[in-house]
Description:
The chain is an alpha/beta fold. The protein has helices spanning 21-26, 58-66, 85-88, 91-95, 114-124, 129-142, 159-170, 189-206, 241-246, 251-258, 299-303, 321-326, 329-337; strands at 6-16, 31-42, 47-51, 73-78, 81-82, 97-100, 177-181, 209-214, 226-231, 234-240, 309-311, 314-316.
Amino acid sequence: MTRPIVEVDRVEKRFPLKDSLIARLLGNEEYVRAVDGVSLSIDPGETLALVGESGSGKSTLANLVTGLHAPTSGTIRFDGEEVGVATRRDPEVLADIGMVFQNPKGSLDPRIDVENVIAEPLKARGWSRSEWKPKVEDLVDRVNLSPSYLARHPHELSGGEAQRVAIARAIALDPRVIVLDEPVSALDVSVQAKILNLLMELQADLDLTYLFIAHDLNVVEHIADRVAVMYLGNLMELAPTEALFAGSTHPYTETLLSAIPSVDPTREKDRVVLGDDVPSPVDPPSGCVFHTRCPLADERCVGEVPDPVTVGEATSWCHYARSFADDQTRLVEAASDD
Ligand SMILES: Nc1ncnc2c1ncn2[C@@H]1O[C@H](COP(=O)(O)OP(=O)(O)OP(=O)(O)O)[C@@H](O)[C@H]1O
């Protein structure tokens, strides 16, 4: 069995709401529970997608994996080694994980040309000009940009071109894992497909592992091997992409799937619309955190935190995952009764 390259074990991340000394002394300091006890692992060469609404904790979880945040509790292991405070600053560990962000232009320094943007991480590691120059030329070629782009500045690039540059920079130090935080959300649909294809090509050529964050499921269908669905800092469902699209095991996943516009009439789903009343992560609901919006919730969901349930290849944090997987029509009926 292959050992996972990333292991997230019962990780919590809480941010203090206000830095009030009095609240702290009185012991009633309030916290945002951004990530609330998540466990998952990523295998080498795999693409794991993290999806969920805004504020569900996706970026915080990604920042925990890259070491930008330290967990409040729980552990993160990279290639079997716990990513602790010391290793988090270790240049070797940092070089193993690359990052690509949503807004490509915003993530590139506007004052420097593409050649120097891509060379930045290499220079920071002490590469001389004669060492980094050929490497940068190879990187621009790898992301399918011609050498003429090297002299351009970020404002002279389209969104897709800027994202190619950001990807070239992210792979400069030959990382093993890349965290892609909404890498195509800011791009036109036709450009999105090209960037996704490029990412898949690079993954195959360079043996990369991806943690791919997206707020909707549409984008991840073709790139992800597995999908982790998050809601209010908790995992709702974790399943192979194909299995998830063939039939989800959690009412929350189903609402996300039903929101995808489909060009395939056999995939047409009745849209399940939830109210906007997402509870506060400062005081999340008891039991299943999704119960306040779930059209199928009952007393058990209010009172008991669901244990993970295995349904086929999926793991689901829903008391009724098995019966839900068998019959999702009840959700549509219950939602339209509301
Ligand atoms: N540094 C911080 N300090 C305080 N609260 C934070 C901090 N970072 C994130 N949060 C809160 O943690 C929760 C999870 O945020 P996070 O950005 O991880 O969600 P997300 O799913 O990535 O959302 P989005 O899709 O909008 O980026 C939110 O309630 C957010 O306001």
